User: Fold these one by one.
Assistant:
Number 1:
Amino acid sequence: MNPSTAIAQVLVDELIACGVTEAVLSPGSRNAPLSMALHAADAAGRIRLHVRIDERTAGFLALGLAKTSERPVPVVTTSGTAVANLHPAVVEADLSGVPLLVLSADRPPQLRDVGANQVIDQVRLFGNALRFFHEFETPAQIPGQNARWRSMVCRSIAYATGAAGAPGPVQLNLSLAEPLMPDSSLQAWPESLQGVGSAWTVIDLPGTQSAGIDMPDDDEKCLFVADFAHPLAAVVAAAGYLVISEAGGAAGTQVLAAGMHLLADAAFMAEHRPDRVIVLGRPTLYRQVTVLLTNPAVTVDVVAEPVGWRGIAGNARRVSATLQPLGEGDTGSKWQLAWSRANMLALDALTKVLDASPISASPRLARELVSLLPLGSNLIVGSSQPVRDVGLAAGSRATLQLSANRGAAGIDGTNSTAIGTALAAAGPSFAYVGDVTFLHDLTGLVIGPAEPRPNLTIVVSNNDGGGIFSTLESGDAAHAAAFERVFGTPHRVSLAGVVAGLGASYARVETPAELARAIGERGGIRVIEVRTTRDDLRALNGQLKAAVAAALAGL
């Protein structure tokens, strides 16, 4: 089976599994795979197909079907101006809140912007009239495509039916390469293309009755994995379930503080891999989480809103905004006890390495800061290295209100976000950021004399540049000649002078005791600078990993 035929068959099958009962088609060459798949589904009585020779007519026919049935209706076109003829119907669907699905066939990317026939810009054609847009990669015979394709169809249905607000039009753009007609002479597809909606991703759409994601059975090896600031992490852990958070121990006393280190230990995971993972929110920080969630042997359920959830592998079984009542976890199971024991061993090993490190090592700084914050504090953490240092080094503690700009995970506006949090939240407020993040939003500290001023302490881990890059591939010794200029990017800025000019108070600390005293002094905007190093960060992370591995070897 050729790739274009494969994706067309899967998409039509998943649309039907998601409740689509009608489809409208305008003929063409590039959309031939979709035409053939829809024709077969119609012949089998699985969908009712409507063929129209004018795309503008087809668009409004689909609009009427969707408006009356209150179900998403796809309209399928070939490439070029055929898609543009749908624009009036898309605009009407936008303003009327009608779940219209545009399935537009397109040329592969290598045929765009080179003068190829029947090519226009279909990516930006409908502008902000769409609730959602996704372009499928040109299909190829790669295992795992089936699940990813089906998952994206489910996501598009969620957007069309109002999961992000009002219902409205969505567009799935398909880059289809020749051959475009079914060809049984080609090699078999490398995986089964069969499946129903419940075999891939079922999304609890707005307005539907749902009890939420099922809690684990007593005999189920189930692990919860939470994003950095998810409010359920501490609650679920306190009920006796195994929970790993991107924030490590800062997420709560019962959360597995060394959890991310356990996930990264291949030997431990080979023996203690969960059969099921319940994802809380959208964790994006750690590669070991990606490895776990893309393991085909692991069942993945997601507690998140029907849009925006993480679905890299397309293998989430179900997405729901709610979780069933907690009950009590099976804290006495052999498997869960092994995880708890491993967490204690790993945490002890991490503590020994960090105790031997100075506060100029940013993981040590993060651990000290989290431990020193008063009860009920708000902690806003910057992207890049600080958020990772907290998750990998913080010990267990309670009653922190965590926050981070993890939607797009940029360093933009972090000072201003922290100031806004401090102005709106109860309790003392602190921010933990890197020097580049701090410098990126210096104007956030510019507050007019008549404006409300927050009580906020900003702790800056100043390693004079981009510390995170030393821990990534770019930090390998093979790239040393270019590293400092294009990744390390030293700036040599005097934070004391900058902060003074902006009217905030400043302190520089060099020891944990000095940090504790500085944290205890509050009033207005205060900046605490800690000079940290980055040339040894990669080695320290290696030490932490080795220490955990040695500790777990005796488990």
Number 2:
Amino acid sequence: MKKGFETLIDAAALRRRLTALVDGGADGGNPAIRAQVLAILKEIRSQTRAEIEAMMLKDRRGSLCAERLSHVQDEIIRVIYDFAIHHVYRVKNPSAAERIAVTAVGGYGRSTLAPGSDIDLLFLLPYKQTPWGESVIEYILYMLWDLGLKVGHATRNVDECLRLSRSDMTIRTALLEARFLWGDEPLFRDLARRFDEEVVRNTGPEYIAAKLAERDDRLKRQGTSRYLVEPNIKEGKGGLRDLQTLFWIAKYFYRVRRPEELIAAGVLSRAEYVRFKRCEDFLWAVRCNMHFATNRSEERLSFDLQREIAQRLGYVERAGMRAVERFMKHYFLVAKDVGDLTLIFCAALEEQHVKIAPVLNRFIKRLTKRHPKTLGSGAFMVENDRINVTGPDVFKQDPIRLIRIFQLADKENLAFHPDAMKLITRSLSLIDDDLRNNPEANSLFLDVLTSKNDPETVLRRMNETGVLGRFVPEFGRVVAMMQFNMYHHYTVDEHLLRSIGELSEIEKGTRKTELPLASAILPGVQNRRLLYVALFLHDIGKGRPEDHSVVGARIAAKLGPRFGLTPAETDTLVWLIEKHLVMSMVATSRDLNDRKTIRDFAAVAQSPERLKLLLILTVADIRAVGPGVFNGWKGQLLRTLYYETEPYLAGGHSQITRDQRVAAAKRELVEKLDGWDPEEREDYVERHYAPYWLRVDLPRKIEHAQFIRAAVRSGRKLATNVTPRAFEGVTEITVLASDHPRLLSTIAGACAVAGANIVDAQIYTTTDGLALDTIFVSREFADDGDEQRRGSRVSGLIEKALAGGERLPEQIERKALAKPRVKAFQLPTDVIVNNSWSDRFTVIEVSGLDRPGLLYDLTRAISDLSLNIASAHIATFGERAVDVFYVTDLFGQKVETRVREKAIRERLMRSFDGKRDVKAAS
């Protein structure tokens, strides 16, 4: 028994208490007695569990918590076993076959247990199962199940265990972890001895290969990045399973029983062993708290849990970082340490000549060892296409080599030898201000950062070894920094490295189909290295109280000259970082058909070259946020903004009047209306007001004309049309209906009920009292046919709702209850009413926590305020919604009184927060 565990459970007293139940000669197998035994065990387990949780909250020792839980479980199983053989299935003269060794295997075999873990047991028999043994095992299992435990179990004899372990690596690993619990100990010792001699001996390389392959498969399922913002604490990269895999391999190959024995085996230094134990303790603390908090076996550290776990572990807000962000940064740093330990461990295996490659590869490696190619003035050598150091002092002799090795690896397209990575990690103290300010070192770093080969991979290696954060301390500050929101999928450093990778792929031409504009203009950019440096630094100011764009610009002003950029390059770099969010914001939340939007953005962009740089940086940035964040619709918006702005900056924007532009647009459409009578054409062009002619492109004007003509000829005043747009990733739904104030609100409500996510809306009124509304909803299916059918279902619901056949408020309320707000997030609601963003419209921007039915409530409120919506632009960034409406009053004028603006803000604040007015809800 581990010292300090004596007070957790008094097994002797528990045995006496259970024995008292049968002291009068009562049958221990009697159902009434069994019920009393079970009640006592439940009481003990509940008390000890609560006590262990309290101890965990006080000392925050994760490994100790897991060991305490395991110890209590051990004692409960021993007590059940003893009660079974002494009072339920007692045998006066047991035969040689009536023996059982109860054995803990798997994680339980390591004497560690999470609150919600399975209990893995092996009931070891000498020969074959006997009726007595079967009854005892069944009694134990049913008692454990009735206690509410999940039990994984097997019943085998020694020969069966050995035979199965030879062919099944999972069983072999379970036996590797086997620990005697109770019963016949000589039987267990026989298994342990024979397993070591007959299975483990001389099969180390085979086991290592299987376990590393198993790890690779697991990470493919979980996600290969250790920087996912909702990580799996057990199975994810850098989690507990990675540490356990290392120890399984160590235990198997080096024949050790405890992690500290790895020091004597030369695998880990004492400092690295301390690091191993620190990582293990932290991960166990997180896992145990997750199980306690949820009262189940929860392994995914979701947003909903992160705040609570941070509080349980004692994190507080500090230096501009929220408690939850500090906790998650600690988690990701630990995950990185686990990766470092994996690297060190693999290097030790190579030193011990563990070969799992084919014979031919081993032969090639022997040849390269005899005649290695040297690099970097003899400091480095190439071994089997991997760069390695030629001696233990190469970095001490010249610290610049800590940067040069990465530049050479990139230049020669070499992987890193584990020995080199280990030495780099152990040489980080050599990176000081002298090295950081060394022109040669910075030139080498810039070569890596702007490489045309694979800069992301080499920079990632620099980050994993700690060199990147030490050489650029400002980057080190954002290493493992999590952004507590649903929009960003990765930590800040991971996002920055992925954005470099995205830019590299665009430059190589591999993204031409997805990103035609960025791919087309990048080769013409005058200074490509500015883009790489800007992407490397664009979010480097995060985690501080100020706007990260402003902080990042200041950092760029300092680092630009250090990296060797000219004053002019540094000026552009600072501008790019300060404005790196502007193009995305304008594209997704402003009306791109409004000339004021384009004029204002052109004033920000300043020149065609800066416009190109900003477009490419914006695309790479969004694509690096996470899977699916950049889509065809965002790409289309960015392209539209670029194409509309470029003529302004090139000095080619037309100066013709508004009336001349409207007349030209009408003539352009008339020429395309083949098969129409002249009178029919004339009547049609008079249907639309000037904003329609100026804001809609020609292909859509032609589609609208044919759609309206067909509806009029059939006598319909309510019609819809569906057009899937695969490249943009949206489906366009056009609605022709009698104009009324709640039209867009009804459409939005129908889409909410149908589960269709509106991303944009254009609203036009015809001269004969009809409304022509075009909405764009996110695409759900890859196949156009499937998407057409889905769009038709949505449009059918819209028609039904407009015809009064759907009670939208009740249905939306049910949707909201089925999908409540994400509890983990609290965002302030903000309403901006602005008259300077458009010449003709008042622009209302509303932002806050997204929820089902939000757009429906907002558009209803705008209608209640007697406002006409000309266009709506809907954007979501994870849990945050940003909805922008271009509106006028009922007379087509801007809202320009302070009293009216205040009323709009107050009403929309209430609607955003789900507080509907009685009149509006009726």
Number 3:
Amino acid sequence: MDRHGNRWSERDMNREKDDERYHNRDHHRRGYQRGHRRTRGGRREERNPFRESHLREGSRPRTETDTRLPGYDVSLYPEPEPIADLQTIAFQPQTNPVPEFNQVSLGNRDKIYPIRRPDNGGSLFARPVRLVVNHFPVIFNPETIIRHYDVDIKPNAPMRSRHPMRLSKATLNHIKDKLFSDYPTQFPLSTPVYDGERNIFSAIPLPCGTYNVKMDREDSSFQCTIKLVNEFNLLKLKDYLAGNLSSIPRDILQSMDLVMKENPTRNMISVGQNFYPLEYQETDDLKCGVAAFRGFQHSLKLTYQGLALCLDSSTMAFRKRMPVIDFLKENIRGFNIGQFARYRREVERALKGVKVTVTHRKTKQKYAIMGLTDETTSSIRFSCESPEGKMNEINLVNYFLEKYKIEIRHGDIPCLDLSKNNNKQFVPMELCMLVEGQRYPKEKLERNASNLLKKFSMPPPDMRKKYICDMMRSNTGPCGDVSRNFGMEVDMNMTKVMGRVIEPPELKLATPNGKVTKIKVDKDKGQWNLMGKSVVDGKPIEKWAIVDFSSSDRNRLNCKPFIQKLIGRCRSLGIRMEEPLFYQADTMSVFSNVARFTELLQDVNDRAFREGRCRPQFLLCVMPREDIGYKYLKWICETRIGLVTQCCLSTKANEDKNSQYLTNLALGINAKLGGSNVELFDPFLHITDEEHVMFLGADINHPAPRDKISPSFAAVVGTINWPASNRYAARIRPQLHRQEKIANIGEMCLELIETYARLNQVWPKKLVLFRDGVSESQFDMVLNEELQDLKKAFSEKDYKPTITIIVAQKRHQTRFFREGDVDGDPISNVPPGTVVDTTVVHPFGFDFYLCSHYGRIGTSKTTHYQVLWDEHKFSSDDLQKLIYSLPFTFARCTNSVSLVPPVCYADLAAYRGRLYHEAVMECSPNSMASSSISMASSSVGSNEERFYKLHADVENTMFFI
């Protein structure tokens, strides 16, 4: 048992033995020399000096007689055949130590780890492309020991309440700085790093014990207790990179990551994981008292070339450091301080919660604005103690004149209320200045400023590359004396890598007479043209209706011309569309009354029954602008009535030459009604047998950061046709607040599989699940919790499909740039079909980066695919080709998208659950509030799920696109 009385598992005992081994430096060095003296495969070979200390060593190649992995068949992974000289030169194939399938821990037989790469990477390509990546190699000293200390800071003054006082991160940092300055020899500033809470990491031993720290303010002293918690030997990280450890030493990586963040933490504004400069560039001024600050985010990556620092640029809107009155003049249109009462409400809205500092005295203290005083500055009086000790009442204006020799100019406007903890504090606006580092919500920006921020946030590749290199070399960047004191040195040059551009698939469309035709995709832009072509399967539209909510708006719909254009466009695409059953005019005011809105939609449904003798296939809803009532419309129709809806904006519908908008409407409607817009001509050639395959996607939508009670929403989507695999059904469930694990994922998937079996009269034998929204630290949860839930649900039905699980990540910082100038391409993004599975990928995991879309704006971000579980034994080429083919089947457009459709659709479906919740909460907040709190704090009850359960007539359609 451990010191807390908890029982140790076998895995914990093994980990304890590992930790003991790494605490003993001399013992570890001897073990390392014994275990690593022999080169790979028993043969001596020349090595790059940098890679010598980072790449996988000591692992042997698998032979045909190797029996360490039950079920391994070497015939499934033959040696790759020689390929063209260009590829041999360009890609320099890497030697993978062992093609391994999912392993269980040696210490715990139930523990599953992600699969290892089954081969040496892919070899198929149409052409090579030379790239540079924002990965900067990090050379570290494997003999370094990083010491982890716990620091407990408490005020010396007795507590006034039962609850301990919570110190802010800024206060804790000030106390730490004072401790280090008071004891400079014991706590040298250049060797420890601090996370702003309870953790200090140091490259040298620090004295443990309790220290009293007296701050500059009177009666402000603190007790700092420092204890040694652990020691991390970087040799353990080297062993992992060499393939000799099964689990990532995350504690070591976290401590090294904190080391790399120390220099920017001391010199820049920190927001989450991002860092921004203290000053902005004049060219980045957004006006309205706000500016765009260009910063960066960075992290450490474990790659094939070893440890690398990945840094990407980031742009965020901040309030400018400026006088409060100047801020109001910029932020509030037409603001006139002489007519303050007219703008009071806008001023309160603009300033409430904003932090300021005062200018009438020297101080670093920051104050949050609580509001405005009811009285004007010249009217405020308060009691003040005179030098003789008497209490006198004094006017606020006179107080500043007598004590600070400052004459208040704007006495006829309110003061700022800076009170805190019942201590009243009123300060004239002209003596307050906004402090730096205050993020400005981008949703509050006016249109011009919002467009400018968007432009700054998406620089073209050459500009983004320059920003990244400049930030790496900056004195405030991640590299500095602190990291060097920890034995870490960063190469300032981006990593060069050779990518492969693979061929796009050939697609299937139809001719106007209904015959199937093969079309080729534009290789450079990943798109195709529907001119003179039809969708593969256009669903006849005979029963539909229009509800026009723009009828009384100045941007009202030109109804008859629009209907004729839509019908004409649908028919040209092979979708036979008849005249609507009826047109009903209404106003946007109905959105504000949910009961009336529900009644209206029910009446529309009933009228369609009367006039068409059946439920309408879909309802076209025309709105003059985007409106929050959209959520009510979707919730009522999709969970209560069972109507498929298609919304459109009257402003776009009225444009004479907006044929692309009509095309997109037609494609969306056809997909929602069960039609097929485009298919692969040779679907999934790499899946050779005739067994049915089902593609699944899973994602979670979390509430906003400041929402502490709303549930998260999980969605799973799955294909319901084969071999086209382009029609999906979705299931949505509420679950615990901000929980990343999908509760009951097995039940949700099984429900979709049963739907597939009912529609196709056969159960799918193969499942390929794409999981979105998980980080590398959550792979264990996917494999050892969600996968087990899947298998448990399947076993109850005696259903035993083979399963592959792939994580798709877009929220990563890796960016690829073409090396050198690109002739004839003004955008110069990496081309669609670019695959990278060397150098910057995981040391031995089965992962790769794929760019499946054409980057028209900004810098393309590739998707990082990581295979966690694979019972189909895909090769790298087969899986990359499969995944690149899927984005061409996305139903809403005529180009390939950046993510596989199962992930895109799961994201849309999960967001639909969020809309349902917001609609329900706003309709009946009192009855639903307690339900939300219970879901957030305990478990998701089936009683709450009824609010989000899809109507039977909608649940197997693509209602979410």
Number 4:
Amino acid sequence: MAKQVQLLGREIPLTTNDLAEMVAAGARMGVARDELIGFTRTAAMMASAFDLPAAELADNMGKVAGLFKIPIPAIGELADAINYLDDNAISKGGDIIEFLTRTGGVAAAVKVTGQQMAALGSTLLTLGERTETASTATNALFQKLAAADKGTKKFKAAMKEIGLSTAAVQKGMQVDAQGTILKVLEAVNKLPKDKQLGVMVELVGLEHSDTLAKLANNVGEYRRQIELATSAEAKGSMSREFEAQRASTLAQWQLLQNRVTEVSVNIGSVLLPAVNRVMGAFASASSSVADFVRENRTLVENIGVVVGAFAGFGAVKLAITGVTWAVTALNVAVRANPIGILITLLAAGAMLVWKNWEPIKAFFVDLWGSITKAAQGTWDWLQGVFFKFHPLGLVIANWEPIRAWFQNLWADITASARQALEWITGKIEAIGQGWQKTKSFFGFGDSPAPAAAGPAPALPAVPPMATARGAGAQVTDQRQYTFDIKTQPGQDNKAIADEVMRRIKSEQGIQRRGAMYDGANQ
């Protein structure tokens, strides 16, 4: 049975513990042993589809199967009907199941199927009734109609008023309860509006008359849900919805966890006998040591004193023997301690894993291969989406033509800039050449040195004195000049040389004018 539950965990996305609890719930409800797994599979599909507690749903479905005398292999047909009603009406699957458990007792006393009762409950829930009020009103209606001949005078008068005999109604409930209820509802609707509520009060009582009134005023909706529950489309609806949910990532993750749990449980079951033997042996040894120490306290104390005395007198051999005895006793104590037992168990487990390493390694290799394959598929899909829709992905995918376009654009910009620079340089050279010609035409060159005049008359000698800065100074320029001249196309070499000399002379003049000269010092 444990193996069957584990195998069920490979296909049902519920935890293995939940599945085991569902099996236990089915067994409590009297489900035969050979039908437990099939029952659990159907109930687990319902729990997954309706998002209900697994053990609770299995318990309720077991009750429903017993109340409605539904064979366990046929419980799936009722599950299909409930699921199809859940999908096509306002009612919820969990509420329909609760309605069935509340009305199953009285339904067992008449001729009605689980699908028909599910349709009735789903209709009342769709019309806004709560599960408690819907089931209570239904029980009252079934009891009144199933025992129509035993009804009160007011009840019989109400039946006569709607044109039905109590005997026919009572017999009809044992042949076709659903058809009989429809006849009663249609007969009530034929009455004038002002009399309908009073008749319903006499039929089911004041507290349930409003529920019956909703049903009587919505017979069309009731018939629609009867067709839903018994339609061909309802068959297999639970399996279809379950398969759709099992394909989800969450369900696949739960199935993987179930596989891991199965492996760990199987390994644990292999280790358990060895663990039990080890624990039994240490428990026995611990008890023996404890009993010996308790019964021979004086002897143990004396052994300790003797060992200490021999060690103190230098009897090395006996000291070593004493230490060995102490270590042995310590080992026994450690093994008797829960921590020591745990360490021993871990060692035993490691030994068993080592002996069975090949099948364990094969399992994890297969597991990792499945994970890697799934991860690679997910990554490929993400890459496809990224390169197809994300702007950055589109840039990366089309990088080569984009790079070529930018290279061409830069080449065009560089060529245009070079042409513009050459044009500007030509214009500057033309202006420079025009200026030289203009200077030459107007005589703007260096002025010729004035002609030497005749000898000046001799002046009386006076002591020389400091004159203005640079007067009579002789400056020797020992500086060296280095020029790195790169001529451009169209430049005049002579103009460049003249400009260089002009600047040198300007520097020398500045130096001469900055010197102080005093002839008296010569």
